[in-house]
Amino acid sequence: MDYDILIRRYRMYILDQKGLSKETYRAYINDIDSMIEFMDKRHIDKPDRYAVRSYMLYLHTRYTRSTINRKLSAIRGFFDFVLSQSNLDVNPFAHVKSLKTEKELPMFLSPDEMIDLIEATSHPRDRAILELLYSTGIRVGEMEAMNCSDVDMDSCFVRVMGKGSKQRIVPIGSHAIEAIKAYLAIRGIKDPIYCNEPLFLNKRDSRLTSRSIRRVVYRWSTSVAISRHISPHTIRHSFATHMLDAGADLRSIQEMLGHVSLSTTQRYTHVTIDRLMEVYDKAHPRAKEEQ
């Protein structure tokens, strides 16, 4: 099989039909490329059960269960497509079951840690990035795709293109508005609603990538001596947890985060309940007696 041609066709297919985010698209293509590279090194054209077992063993020695499941999903989807494009009779990965994974509670910062992180950020662009992430809870890929015209400073809303090319409108706070305004003023942009340039630029005046946004978050988190590894997704978790703590209802948080299923949003209730139990155990006289 000519995998180069098949991958080119598959790229066009998933871009046109699947509506994946840039992050998911890149991950899927990398997962497929890695699998084909593994097969090429072993001179395997059409993977049989033995080759599939070898590859799954290879994954088990290198990745977590959740990562393996993502790779498996990408590879299954690719071979489903190959079935319609070649003389392959069956998807070689169809019989491989996804691994059971333990549901991990999302890591988040406390409100004080979040404020310390933002206040320590002196670079206007980076400050605007952190303020926007915390104010809206958007994904890093969604931030990468934003243009200046997606920010409505008068109405205090941002337009976000989420997973599956689904657009949503998310409120944005005054601190984030002011930070974005200060950054865009340096670029000579007074009202972003009339500007179609990327919202965040790198040093070469090109669109800032998701990878670079992650670097921004990590660099400033180390400057305030936060011991954990902080990513844009950590800030997204912090946004949701702090909103829930402040009394926001789950449905509203679901809409702002762009979750398709409410069950995805409900995991934040576990974080809140666990913290409530800690407070109860420390504060209630009867609970103290039992310790």
Give descriptors for this structure.
291 residues; hpI Integrase, Chain A; 3-stranded antiparallel beta sheet; 13 helices; 3 strands; 59% helix; globular
Compose a concise summary of this entry:
This protein is mainly α and 291 residues long. It is built from 13 helices and three strands; from the N terminus they run αααααααβββαααααα.
Which CATH architecture of the largest domain is right? Orthogonal Bundle
- What helical percentage do the residues reach? 55-70%
What is the CATH superfamily label of the largest domain?
Intergrase catalytic core
- The count of strands amounts to 3
How many DSSP helices? 13
How much of the sequence lies in strands comes to under 5%
| Helix-strand sequence | HHHHHHHEEEHHHHHH
Overall number of structural domains: 2
CATH C-level category of the largest domain: Mainly Alpha
Strand order of the largest sheet: 1-2-3
Largest sheet: 3 strands, antiparallel
Q: Regarding quaternary structure, how should these chains be classified? A: single chain
The low-pLDDT segments are none
Rg calculated over all Cα atoms: 22 Å
- Could you please say which CATH topology of the largest domain applies here? hpI Integrase, Chain A
User: What spatial form do the alpha-carbon principal axes imply?
Assistant: globular
Structural class: mainly alpha
Could you tell me the mean pLDDT? 86
> Distance N terminus to C terminus?
66 Å
Overview of the structural elements:
With 291 residues, the chain is mainly alpha-helical. The protein folds into 2 domains: 3-83, DNA polymerase, domain 1; 111-280, Intergrase catalytic core (hpI Integrase, Chain A). The chain is built from 13 helices and 3 strands; from the N terminus they run αααααααβββαααααα. It has a 3-stranded antiparallel beta sheet. The chain is globular, with a radius of gyration of 22 Å. The N and C termini lie far apart (66 Å). The mean pLDDT is 86.
